[in-house]
Amino acid sequence: MERMPRTSFSAEHGTESPVERMFLQSYDDYANALFRHAVLRVRDRDLARDLVQETFTRVWDYLAKGKSIEHVRAFLYRTLNSALVDAMRKKRPVSLDQLAEDDGFDPPEEYTDPTPEVREEYRAALHMVNALDDRYKTPLLMRYVDGLSPKEIAALLGVTENVVSVRIHRGLKELRGSLRQ
Fold this sequence. Notes:
The protein is mainly α.
């Protein structure tokens, strides 16, 4: 994802405020992870880019009102999830299998083996994850794709840490059951 240009007056004159520095650092630190999360959720790279841009626009507007953010990463994911919900209401999602077939979605290079067998296993895994109920799929993706802790996931989803742990456990159990079949 391309770097967001620094176009504010203060940035042009080298006098960034602490809020601007925090915002720009947040973009540098989290934009790619937010983009990956959005792609997995909406299965559309262009829409995912738009959602990440919308997320940072909403966060900037929030900061411009003089409000502060205690936990930036959690706030960004919560804002992205709100944008995702808005987008999902407007557009019907596509399956991960269809994304792999139609858009050529492939895992990042460091996670792939060029053999056809490995690619087929990857597609099968995507199909199994896509088949999970959202209450299990979302925490699993947030935990193992986005690298969020159960505590962070709980804050984002508005549930307790115990609920998140149970959903992750049950989601993994369902995936294991699918593998045995």
